[in-house]
């Protein structure tokens, strides 16, 4: 999963005072590589330390994130598919549109075009020139505040007084006077060897600009999809955005009497039901909510919605995660929720799961059937059935899908977990941190050995602290939606799954690499080290702390991470931790991990035998569990009050080539990150896709 650095080193609410030659290991005997060679797209957010030192603009980053996720369709097919006809469309006065298209500079086009389009809007709808009024609440991608040239609103009451309001936006128009700034190639009927994305900086920025607008709509609203319009002189394209990607129509002349696609688009859109326009109607706004529910949600002056999940319903307020701020992918939103019948407090997860993976609820059921400990219980789960758009990423034959497409099908899904935990970074002592790490490792062991389930996405965001009424902490391993059953083989996605900062070094190879249990265990070790250096009380200066953690900010550099592990016990010793007990356990664990990327030299057979023995041990849970359990017997350590602290970090100033994101983050990735103040030809049915374990060969 790459991270804006402003979030990797963001500060949770912790007390500020301190208390009293090398190579990868020999190939393992797994016959089928799990991940094909590809350009990985996962993200490191929110575990980056670079604090926003990126040389690319938001448009560049947005365009990169949507690479391979555009498809083409003819305008009439687009309109007929997504927006039903509505009677009474006015006659088109093409001269007014021609006049608007001829205005120069670009800013002179706005008002004439608005005037020409107003007759094609439903009464109460409005178009506003917002080209100089950025929305202060829309900084979802790199903090960029959007300001479309023209913003379109329905007759709903405005949420605030800003001229540009992504939270109310129905659609937008982005205008370019030069057709050469089109973000897409000229229309082609032959789908072979096509990349729909036009080369060149200006074209790339046009695509990225459109993505920032569409993303801001979906990030600030409960939406299943959204629409947009690109004007290029006297030409036009229509767009539709989903969690899978963006559909773009072929160019057409909106000033020509041969068609009225643009005018028809606005007439149909403004008269369509809200669900057809992309509003998720399953989030039902509530009024006059019982004070007890407000108290449980801590939402006295905040909006509250009622959301169905299976046969149950739950009250929620605003989500506590920000994974949905990314333009494509699972778009996970997690809410503290209240069961409408029992008033039990729980966590509701709303996500667009990847088709071809097991439903997370199915995975949890398998885990519980095999008595896997330290995982949450499920209160409800199921695919969202209501609404006009509950799936995306599968297209009719009339859609042109480029050969470089990385679009994946998604299905709207919800699951409710019976715990409301704390992020692992909120540990109250380093003993508690270690104990919760141990609990999560035990859950992983039980899942692999008993339930035959591999987690495959170990990160700080996937380990929770769950407290009993007396304050006793237990670690829970969560977010099993990317997991895989041990009996399954083959590829399931275009991109590697996982959080890149904590991914085993060997998995960063450009060559196909089979995952093993040892890779997840290495991820646990990387998480443990990161939490210790970042939050455990220590004497490191902010600059030195940044240097020590820099390896997590070069996640695609396999060699850097191998070296980090290879130096073994030297790594935690450099953390200058206040807790000698925490240092000892980290040193002991890393003494073993130094063997994973070691190799013998000078034909030293004895050394080779020792390395091979340690490497085999690193593929098992037992040694790690035994080592940690023994360390936790230290009563003095148990009594220490050395909880997580706010510690500054000054990362090296680095010019990143790109900032890549994961399709979505985990439930609790962002809990401990303070929020910024912010004013984003396949005809198989989804049932058929659900029964297909290996979807890498499906053309979507």
TrEMBL record:
SUPFAM superfamilies registered for this protein in UniProt: Protein kinase-like (PK-like)
Ranges of compositional bias, category Polar residues: 14-23, 34-45
Domain Fungal-type protein kinase: 202-531
Stretches the record annotates as Disordered: 1-45
Gene3D superfamilies assigned: Transferase(Phosphotransferase) domain 1 (1.10.510.10)
Protein name: Fungal-type protein kinase domain-containing protein
């Amino acid at each position: 999963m790459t991270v804006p650095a402003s979030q990797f080193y963001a500060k949770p609410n912790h007390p500020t005072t301190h208390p009293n030659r090398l190579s990868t290991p020999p190939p393992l005997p797994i016959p089928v590589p799990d991940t094909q060679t590809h350009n990985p797209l996962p993200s490191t957010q929110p575990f980056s330390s670079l604090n926003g030192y990126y040389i690319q603009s938001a448009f560049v980053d947005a365009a990169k994130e949507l690479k391979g996720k555009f498809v083409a369709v003819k305008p009439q097919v687009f309109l007929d598919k997504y927006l039903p006809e509505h009677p009474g469309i006015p006659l088109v006065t093409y001269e007014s549109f021609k006049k608007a298209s001829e205005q120069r500079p670009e800013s002179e086009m706005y008002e004439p075009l608005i005037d020409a389009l107003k007759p094609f809007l439903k009464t109460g709808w409005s178009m506003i020139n917002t080209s100089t009024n950025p929305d202060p609440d829309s900084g979802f991608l790199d903090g960029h505040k959007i300001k479309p040239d023209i913003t379109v609103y329905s007759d709903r009451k405005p949420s605030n007084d800003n001229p540009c309001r992504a939270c109310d936006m129905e659609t937008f128009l982005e205008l370019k006077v030069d057709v050469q700034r089109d973000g897409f190639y000229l229309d082609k009927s032959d789908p072979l060897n096509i990349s729909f994305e036009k080369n060149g900086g200006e074209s790339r920025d046009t695509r990225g600009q459109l993505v920032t607008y569409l993303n801001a709509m979906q990030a600030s609203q409960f939406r299943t999809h959204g629409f947009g319009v690109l004007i290029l002189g006297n030409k036009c394209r229509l767009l539709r955005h989903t969690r899978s990607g963006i559909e773009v129509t072929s160019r057409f002349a909106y000033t020509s009497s041969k068609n009225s696609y643009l005018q028809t688009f606005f007439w149909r859109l403004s008269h369509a039901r809200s669900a057809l326009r992309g509003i998720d109607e399953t989030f039902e706004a509530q009024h006059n909510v019982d004070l007890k529910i407000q108290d449980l949600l801590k939402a006295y002056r905040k909006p509250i919605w009622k959301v169905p999940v299976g046969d149950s319903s739950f009250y929620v307020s605003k989500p506590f995660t920000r994974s949905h701020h990314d333009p494509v992918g699972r778009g996970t939103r997690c809410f503290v929720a209240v069961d409408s019948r029992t008033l039990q407090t729980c966590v509701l997860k709303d996500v667009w799961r990847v088709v071809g993976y097991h439903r997370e609820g199915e995975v949890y059921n398998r885990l519980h059937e095999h008595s896997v400990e330290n995982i949450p219980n499920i209160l409800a789960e199921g695919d969202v059935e209501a609404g006009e758009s509950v799936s995306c990423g599968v297209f009719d034959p009339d859609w042109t899908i480029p050969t470089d497409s990385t679009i994946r099908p998604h299905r709207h899904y919800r699951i409710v977990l019976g715990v409301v935990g704390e992020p692992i970074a909120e540990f109250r002592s380093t003993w508690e941190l270690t104990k919760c790490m141990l609990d999560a490792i035990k859950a992983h062991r039980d899942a692999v050995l008993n339930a035959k389930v591999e987690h495959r996405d170990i990160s700080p965001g996937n380990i929770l602290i769950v407290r009993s009424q007396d304050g006793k902490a237990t670690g829970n391993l969560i977010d099993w939606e990317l997991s895989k059953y041990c009996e399954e083989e083959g590829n399931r996605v275009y991109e590697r799954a996982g959080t890149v900062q904590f991914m085993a070094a060997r998995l960063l190879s450009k060559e196909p690499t089979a995952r093993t249990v040892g890779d997840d265990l290495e991820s646990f070790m990387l998480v443990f080290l990161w939490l210790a250096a970042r939050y455990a009380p220590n004497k490191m200066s902010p600059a030195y702390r940044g240097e020590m953690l820099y390896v997590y900010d070069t996640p695609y550099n396999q060699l850097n991470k191998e070296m980090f592990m290879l130096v073994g016990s030297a790594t935690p010793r450099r953390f200058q931790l206040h807790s000698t007990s925490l240092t000892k356990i980290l040193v002991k664990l890393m003494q073993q991990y130094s063997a994973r990327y070691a190799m013998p030299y000078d034909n030293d057979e004895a050394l080779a035998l020792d390395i091979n023995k340690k490497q085999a041990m690193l593929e098992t849970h037992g040694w790690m569990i035994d080592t940690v359990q023994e360390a936790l017997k230290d009563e003095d350590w148990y009594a220490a009050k050395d909880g997580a602290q706010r510690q500054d970090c000054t990362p090296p100033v680095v010019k990143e080539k790109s900032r890549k994101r994961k399709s979505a983050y985990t439930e609790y990735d962002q809990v401990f990150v303070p929020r910024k103040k912010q004013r984003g030809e396949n005809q198989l049915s989804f049932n058929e896709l659900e029964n297909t374990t290996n979807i890498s060969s499906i053309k979507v």
